[in-house]
Design goal:
Strand content of chain A: 5-15%
Largest interface: A-B, 35 and 33 residues
Shape of chain A: globular
Largest sheet of chain A: 5 strands, mixed
CATH superfamily of the largest domain in chain A: Periplasmic binding protein-like II
CATH topology of the largest domain in chain A: D-Maltodextrin-Binding Protein, domain 2
Structural class of chain B: mainly alpha
CATH class of the largest domain in chain A: Alpha Beta
Number of strands of chain B: 2
Distance between the termini of chain A: 97 Å
Number of strands of chain A: 17
Helix content of chain B: over 70%
Number of helices of chain A: 23
Structural class of chain A: alpha/beta
Strand order of the largest sheet of chain B: 1-2
Radius of gyration of chain B: 28 Å
Radius of gyration of chain A: 26 Å
CATH architecture of the largest domain in chain A: 3-Layer(aba) Sandwich
Oligomer: heterodimer
Shape of chain B: extended
Helix content of chain A: 40-55%
CATH class of the largest domain in chain B: Mainly Alpha
Distance between the termini of chain B: 50 Å
């Protein structure tokens, strides 16, 4: 009898304990944050980290559910979902250029009020590099220089996005070629300059040296390269020069800024003109400079289909010595399964134009994507989403993201001494940020871009001169922007 | 009518129910009052559900009335309803949009624009430029498809060893997806890795860059499209060739008719209808050519291979000028309808001409 009582007692207390453990906090809810994301490593890593480490501070069961969409379809699929009114996503990764169209459309949520009410979010924004806040978050666009000067929060800024994967253009090069003794000697003899080998040397490369590199490494089948006979043609350099999406503007803009020219500047609206700016002598000179380097690139450049994917492929297939590419592609360049040159790749900053004082102006177009909240979320979902954002942009998580192959826009993270040791290209990321500017964010972005890409392509494929192309672009932009009220 | 109905469904209760629920005229009146009324009075979402309810009511009464009396129309109705909801209604909707200021990526409501967008599209030099490109591509690709398809059909008409396997291989391109064909030809023409360039380089020693010039790029597009669709023409022509009675050829042989004469007087009349059908199908399809162009050249170099379909895509899904793109799409439909009717007119004209002497 005693044992029975004891047994009952044990069972009862076990049941009680069990039920106490099983019962969730009274308010715990299942909340799904569905997010439209392009399918590539930075978003896969985000999902992985969220699954393993994210616990909502509210006690709710919050699950990040990314909808992985292939890159080529991404714009169309996201635009279709937003415009159809299906309200499927609570958050979305967005190219910074789409901000205007989707904010004016009423799809992306302004977060100023939430920032004002939340010191933690303010801390996040203060720690983000101003170039990223400018490109990814502000609309109407405010330049990084102005944000840096005024500090956070900027009284006139409307804030929207947070960095998902900040990206910059950097140099990828073949260490086996650039550090080869014989090649170095031959280069020194031919040009009277040293062939850069270490990343520090490569960081000091200007466009003149790039032209030398391009010419030097252009070899035909049968010639020698780094002590071996080539069985196929080999090329010196490659950068994006494709007609699709933004695959030439992203590089040409950098040239234009470095030469002291400008694209149509949305921050100057409504006084800033397109005519006379877009086709200014500096811009023409810059575009001619860009075109002059195409002769050292693989022949596909003549077809206007050398997009970032082709540049990536040519490099991984070992057809080219030196390329400019987004940092986001670096992982595949050193992957043994995907790259024939995976064990011989070096990384450095984007080159630039040598100034009179000997420094290099390496102003370039920023890449990467912010993610935003959509406008149709309930207060509860907004709160959970912002909690998720704060978790995502916390130092620990950003460090984990960077260790797994992503990049962090937090100055405290990418400025940390260890950062460069996570991945071989990380040393080029932080110092590049101050050189980044962005293309337009206005709703008419796509019309401006498509026409510009077509005209650039005509110049790239030799149907037009640089000046003719820029003149056509300038007059088109002047008309369109005047009609849209951006120029008065 | 009443006796028929009674005969079909004997019994009191069912009959009574039917009397009550088959009053489709009343339902129609309710709907006509309720739909505009709810649009005027309620918020949009409520109005939608009220209208939806009214439509369901009409459907229910019509179905109840037709139940057992008109089984044929009732069986076809679901298909027609699906067609209407999924196809005809959106088509009419987009026609409506072309008369309004409307962008699908803005939440602002449409404003009436009349024929503004039609005027804009017709006076847009870009549209005329893209139409010219399209015309060049259509004429070249359809011409080549007809010739190659016809020759292939002549080849496959007779029996020879391995015919079945070869036929299957020749038909493969037609069954591939556009994306696969586009990706394949992009690599095929690629100057560094591509087969074409490698082959030419064996002879010239230089990589061959077909897509560098506007003419080359058009040739590349036309070749890819013709490669894909010549087998389709072949299939149609082959069907015509097989249907020619053997005895006609035997008789011609006895008469010692020449090959050309046999072809002209026996073969051609049998296959002409099918050949014209192939011409019609391929012209319509080529007019809408999008996938292959977008994948191989993206319309480049410059805009030299940008067909009207690619341009339409840009206007509607990149610029999101929904109204303008709808107007353009309807102008294109109009062009296709005119072309089709011209074709039908010529076919009938010829048939009349042939009948007249007989």
């Amino acid at each position: 009898m005693k044992t029975l009582k004891a047994l009952v007692g044990v069972l009862a207390s076990a049941a009680l304990l069990g039920s106490a453990l099983a019962v969730k906090p009274a308010s715990a809810k299942d909340i799904v944050l569905r997010m439209a994301v392009p399918d590539w490593p930075p978003t896969r890593i985000m999902k992985d980290l969220a699954d393993k480490h994210y616990k909502a501070p509210s006690g709710n069961n919050v699950v990040l559910e990314p909808d992985f969409i292939p890159w080529p379809d991404y714009y169309t699929r996201l635009a279709a979902s937003l415009t159809s009114g299906e309200q499927k996503y609570q958050m979305a990764v967005s190219d910074s250029q789409w901000l205007g169209a989707n904010i004016e459309g009423g799809y992306y949520m302004k977060i100023n009020d939430f920032i004002d009410a939340d010191p933690e979010l303010q801390a996040v924004f203060k720690d983000l590099h101003p170039a990223l806040v400018a490109a990814y978050s502000t609309y109407p666009h405010i330049t990084a220089a102005e944000l840096a000067e005024v500090g956070f929060p900027h009284p006139d800024a409307n804030y929207y996005g947070f960095p998902q994967m900040p990206d910059v253009l950097i140099t990828y090069y073949r260490t086996d070629l650039f550090c080869h003794e014989g090649e170095r000697a031959a280069f020194q003899e031919k040009y009277g300059k040293a062939l850069p080998c270490a990343p520090e040397e490569m960081n000091d490369v200007d466009w003149d040296l790039v032209a030398n590199i391009g010419e030097f490494f252009q070899r035909s089948a049968g010639e020698m390269l780094a002590g071996e006979t080539l069985d196929d043609d080999f090329y010196g350099i490659a950068y994006q020069a494709g007609k699709g999406y933004d695959f030439s503007s992203m590089e040409i803009n950098g040239f234009v800024w470095q030469h002291g020219g400008n694209i149509w500047d949305e921050t100057m609206a409504p006084d800033g003109q397109a005519e006379g700016v877009v086709n200014s002598p500096e811009a023409v000179e810059a575009f001619e400079h860009y075109l002059s380097l195409l002769q050292y690139m693989p022949p596909v450049v003549k077809t206007g289909t050398m997009d970032i994917f082709k540049v990536d492929e040519l490099f991984r297939e070992g057809k080219v010595a030196w390329i400019l590419q987004w940092i986001g592609f670096a992982e595949s360049a050193i992957s043994a399964e995907m790259s024939k040159v995976h064990d011989r790749v070096g990384f450095a900053m984007h080159p630039g134009l040598r100034m009179a004082d000997g420094t290099i102006d390496r102003t370039a177009n920023i890449g990467g994507q912010p993610f935003v909240l959509t406008t149709w979320n309930s207060d509860e979902v907004i709160k959970e989403a912002l909690d998720f954002v704060k978790w995502w942009l916390s130092s620990d998580v950003q460090t984990m993201f960077a260790q797994a192959g992503g990049q962090s826009g937090l100055m405290s993270v990418h400025g940390a001494p260890d950062y460069a040791s996570y991945r071989p290209w990380n040393h080029a990321f932080g110092p590049s940020l101050k050189w980044q500017k962005d293309v337009w964010h206005i709703p008419e972005f796509f019309e401006l871009l498509v026409q510009q890409q077509e005209e650039f392509d005509k110049a790239i494929t030799g149907q037009k001169s640089a000046k003719e192309a820029l003149d056509t672009i300038a007059s088109f932009q002047q008309e369109l922007l005047t009609e849209a009220g951006h120029i008065e | 009518m009443a006796t028929q109905a009674q005969a079909a469904t004997p019994g009191g209760l069912g009959q009574q129910l039917r009397e009550h629920f088959s009053n489709w005229r009343l339902a129609l009146v309710i709907a006509i009052l309720a739909i505009p009324g709810s649009v005027a009075l309620f918020p949009l979402e409520t109005a939608f559900w009220v209208s939806f309810g009214a439509v369901i009511l009409i459907t229910a009464t019509v179905v109840t009335r037709a139940w057992g009396r008109r089984p044929g129309p009732l069986l076809v109705a679901p298909a027609l309803a699906t067609l209407f909801v999924m196809n005809i209604f959106p088509l009419l909707w987009s026609l409506g949009l072309s008369f309004f200021h409307f962008r699908a990526n803005r939440m602002s409501p449409p404003r009436f624009a009349g024929l503004d967008y039609f005027e804009k599209v017709i006076s847009d030099p870009n549209v005329w430029d893209r139409l010219q490109t399209t015309a060049i591509v259509v004429v070249l690709t359809v011409g080549i498809q007809l010739i190659v398809g016809f020759l292939l059909a002549l080849m496959f008409e007779r029996e020879f060893p391995g015919r079945r396997i070869l036929l299957m291989l020749v038909l493969t391109p037609m069954m591939l997806s556009f994306v696969a064909v586009g990706a394949f030809f992009r690599y095929y023409y690629e100057p560094t890795f591509g087969l074409l360039s490698q082959a030419v380089r064996l002879v010239t020693g230089e990589p061959y860059i077909l897509l560098a010039s506007p003419e080359g790029a058009i040739a590349g597009i036309v070749f890819a499209d013709a490669w894909m669709w010549s087998p389709f023409v072949m299939l149609l022509v082959l069907a015509g060739l097989v249907s020619v009675p053997k005895y006609l050829y035997e008789a011609a042989e006895i008469d010692r008719a020449s090959w050309w004469r046999r072809f002209r007087t026996i073969t051609l009349p049998y296959i002409r209808g099918l050949l014209l059908l192939a011409l019609l199908f391929r012209t319509i399809e080529a007019f809408k050519l999008f996938d292959v162009v977008f994948l191989i050249t993206e319309g480049g170099p410059g805009t030299s291979t940008e067909t009207i379909a690619v341009y339409l895509y840009r206007v509607s899904f990149q610029y999101f000028k929904t109204a303008e793109s709808s107007a353009l799409a309807y102008i294109l439909i109009f062009i296709v309808i005119v072309l089709t009717n011209l074709y039908l007119y010529f076919v009938q004209q010829r048939e009349k001409d042939e009948e007249a002497p007989a």
